[in-house]
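Data availability (excerpt). The following record was deposited with the supplementary files.
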Amino acid sequence: MKANSTDGRLQDIELALARASVFADLDDETIRALAVSATRRAWDTGTVLFQRGDAGDFLLALASGQVRLSVSTPGGKELVLRHMGPGEVIGE
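Predicted structure:
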């Protein structure tokens, strides 16, 4: 029997959460409960996900791709703080 796409998305979310070190001590049942309440999202390259001062009302567990964390200097230049990838978590 073929798994439906919803099952596949849930498994993708579970894998992303399980790979994140912040969730390393959680059991499979807890990871699954988190995954069920999560939303899988995708963004185009170059999309700004959040800016300084935005409400910290979500957490991102990266499943694929890369995120660049940066700030603008007083002179208007971008200062890259770090790059993050799969298995890492961003948020408050």
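Summary of structural features: Residues 5-19 form the longest helix (15 residues).
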